[in-house]
Amino acid sequence: MATGNSNHISSMHPTGTEYKNTQFQFSVVLPKDWHSKGLVDMFEQLERETYPFTPQSHKSLEERYQEGLEEVLPLFTFSKNNSDATDEKLVPTIQAMAYNKLQISESLTDCDFLQLIQKGIEASHTNGISKLTNNCESFWLNGIHYASQMSHMKTNKIGPIIKQQRFAAHVLKTHVLYMVLNYFDEDQRLQLLDIVNSLKFTGNR
User: What superkingdom heads the lineage (predicted)?
Assistant: First the structure.
């Protein structure tokens, strides 16, 4: 696997309506009139969520990318609304990250991984609890094997509740592809599923 190559970093950005990732050898379609978040913005968001009380990193994009390959690497964020909007106004949105299996466990199944992520979410949320609404399901979508699970935020807040469907799939034997679909209703969920269904791998996994 090539690393430290600026071509891999530049390939993280959407080109036209198709997003191509040469690092993990997949492509996915960005719907017309939807928005994508830049790689720098995704790293900054990941750092804020992971280390909320730590000053913002001043590392270069390539340094962040290399560190991400060893731990958690943001891949893409697509939203129907402006990517500069607040979280609720971004919905519907889909976020994708790659988790290095050496940081968790190489023997974890995709469903085990989703359960591990859920425990981390429950431990980190202070304003609400992410409540699972179904058991982990394993299925094939466009020739790719995924584990999937649904959840929603249980809060005291009045208003629409953001629902989630999460997907996990092993890629390149070294990482787990993790995708989160955020939506309010079934119509939005189906729009996001169309994006997941467009994802295809171009190399050997």
Answer: Eukaryota
